């Protein structure tokens, strides 16, 4: 038996996280405290409070069962194509997760909104670099909802990750799932991670089919539930994201990729090219494990598990030349 290369750490605990949320601080309905309470009832341990255009650190909510990530969501809007009709405006939305919440606090609280214009890619990339220097991880959000195409995101630099699934956008108009955009960014040579989040505003009640909570989450495997350990795991890609299924183990051993997960119908391994490894359950059955012989020419690999409800769980991409 060769040495195992763990793509998700062998040691640690999985903590369920919502990395995109809006409260009364911007345009959401719940207070930060109310959101913590409702999400904890459903097994969550981490929330990034990404209120629009407003950076906040809700450290008062942190305890031994919950971590609030200091964060915000910024935007860069394009011009209006029809006066007063925002539904046709192209926009960049970027979540910023603070890895150093005690650094340059006054500057962050004053304003970290970008001053560049839509289409100024050099300005956008300078802004992303400035945010990285301030200690932020930058996550590119919901390109489908944002009416963006390949030309809008192909030249972005310095991204830590992107949203592969946004539950709120899925409610808005089936705009939520973005695997093609993730693969396109990877195929350009970007080593970035993928996350899922709710982007919840909670305008509908929790028992309403239009409730925008609890549908997209990220499972972070960390040494313990502290701000530092959660951030360390985010930095290093020690997580997967999901609409429902769970990825339990993920490692390479003796040239084989091993996937262990909750019951699903399909396990796919996406690659840099068109080739794809896959294992499918017989009709009406499920599978919980798959092994795939790697040829070494895949470029990168990333796992996509789909259950009987059509819900996906996605691993981060792993470049085989690492």
From TrEMBL:
SUPFAM superfamilies: PHP domain-like
Domain Polymerase/histidinol phosphatase N-terminal: 17-78
Top-level taxon: Bacteria
Alphabetized SMART domains for the sequence: POLIIIAc
GO molecular function: 5'-3' DNA exonuclease activity; 5'-3' RNA exonuclease activity
The name this protein goes by in its record: Polymerase/histidinol phosphatase N-terminal domain-containing protein
Organism: Hungatella hathewayi WAL-18680
